[in-house]
Amino acid sequence: MNLDGGQLRERIRSAVSSQTQTTITVLSCLLAVQDEIGYLPDESLEEVASRMDTTINEVWGVASFYTNFRFTPPGDRVVEVCWGPTCHLLGAPHILKAVMDELGLEDEGETEGNRTSLKYNTCLGACSQAPVMMVDHRLVGRVTIDKALAHVSEARDGA
Ligand code: FES
């Protein structure tokens, strides 16, 4: 997504102001921005601080506390592998290793050219379907290594 500064700020403001809950917090603003844009650009810290009538330092304190926030753009496709307790017991380490090998990564992060992001997740909320992964926000349950690799290739090759 290539937005100029003005368009980016407009999307941030729109995400922050479109929240429907009555209690709007710095955290909920940041979540709304990340849901909309996929990460928290510097401008979002300024916009949230302004909206919540607080300082950029306060907003940064909240943003940097939660590991789920990211500060750089995600890849074009996003693959998440759950490594929470249930998934771990049911084979997540083998699936994660296979996915990393397939993407040529040694840790979570982005492949070359920012085409694919790999993220670990501590629980995708579908333990009964474990082991679980998510591809572009689409949940895939009862994952085997073959199934995981098929989804990763599909995502990577843009299918
Ligand atoms: S531990 Fe993996 S979905 Fe809950």
Using DSSP, what is the number of strands?
Answer: 5
CATH A-level architecture of the largest domain: 3-Layer(aba) Sandwich
Tally the helices: what do you get?
Answer: 7
Helix percent reads 40-55%
CATH superfamily of the largest domain: Glutaredoxin
User: Which consecutive residue ranges, at least 5 long each, have pLDDT under 50?
Assistant: none
The geometry reads as elongated
Order of neighbouring strands in the sheet with most strands:
2-3-1-4-5
Mean pLDDT: 91
Q: Specify the structural class.
A: alpha+beta
Strand content: 5-15%
**CATH overall fold name of the largest domain:** Glutaredoxin
Main beta-sheet strand count, sense and barrel state = 5 strands, mixed
Number of domains: 2
What gap, in angstroms, lies between the N and C termini? Answer: 19 Å
Our Rg estimate from Cα atoms comes to: 17 Å
Ligand catalogue: FE2/S2 (inorganic) cluster
Order of helices and strands: HHHHEHHEEEEH
Q: What is the name of the CATH class of the largest domain?
A: Alpha Beta
Short description:
With 159 residues, this protein is of the alpha+beta class. It folds into 2 domains: 5-65; 77-156, Glutaredoxin (3-Layer(aba) Sandwich). The chain is built from 7 helices and 5 strands.
Index terms:
159 residues, binds FE2/S2 (inorganic) cluster, alpha+beta, Glutaredoxin, five-stranded mixed beta sheet, 2 domains
